[in-house]
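# nightly structure sweep
# worker-07 picked up a monomer target from the shared queue
# config: single-sequence mode, recycle default, output format = structure tokens
# input follows
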Amino acid sequence: MNELLALVYWQETAIKLGIALAVIPTTSLILVYLFLFKMMAFMQSRLGPNDTGPYGSLQLIAEAIKFLQKEDIHPAQADRRVFRLAPVVVLASTFLLYVVLPAGPDAVVENLDTGVFYAMAVSSLSVLGILMAGWASANKYALLGGLRAAGQLIAYELPLILAVMGVVIQAETLNLQGIVVAQATGEIFGWGGIGNPFILTQFVGLLIFMIAAQAELTQTPFDMPVAETELVGGFHIEYTGFRFLLFFMAEFGTAFAFSALASVLFLGGWWIPGFDVDDNILNILGPGVMLAKILLVAFVIFWVRFTYPRLREDQLQKFAWKFLIPLSLVNIVATGVFKVAF
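# output follows
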């Protein structure tokens, strides 16, 4: 029976890629509806969209149809080939992140031994697409937004990676599934009832990771690359219709991916206390557990976005280079010392 159900490699790969491609717009819809439409409206004492579908749940479908109907405009002086390719590069960076994110013992597209390294590498590819969009638009505001984004992403990529190093040292693996297992099989002072989620021992690392992720997503208070009051719209100011929709999907899809990465690295991922890590039932229950943890992390990201004012460019750079990077290095040293001592 197992032989009959077995799929050849290309069939299995096609199914996995199809699922990953479907996840990006789905996750974007979830985050936009819950946080951008409903939570922000509640925080600002507004109703939010509530006419299109039950509780406004179909508003995003209507928005997507609107974008698809809009004319695809190119600036007269734009480099059309690079201009068209830029949003695809940004979205591809988001798509590649989902390849290694586990949602269960076997529920992962590709279980790489160097999953953490891969995730950190592909997450930085988006800066190439942003620079392409800023330069190819032949617009000074777009170019300034692209250059701001490049400087910001380079500055905050370092503390993001250094924050993850503490987790890697403690788990002794770069494999994301291995990191979940390390938390599930760990103990707190000899008690393993809830395992040892790294949020307890890597709280500083989680704080640095969340701040750096906020900057990577260009969310307030780190939204200088798209500052409407200064740059009108930033690097995607000249984009319309479907191409702007790609940027929009990439932004929220990446927010979901970073939230998933934080839940795997610091919150135990898909594991549920009381279950064995190899239990097949976790392939069914695990995605639900992961979704709950992801929404919790995403809530913090968007709560900060809707609460704090925008920083100045010099404040942003000083915060990264003079505070976050030294703090992350101290966290790595402390983790190494405790790892050797205990």
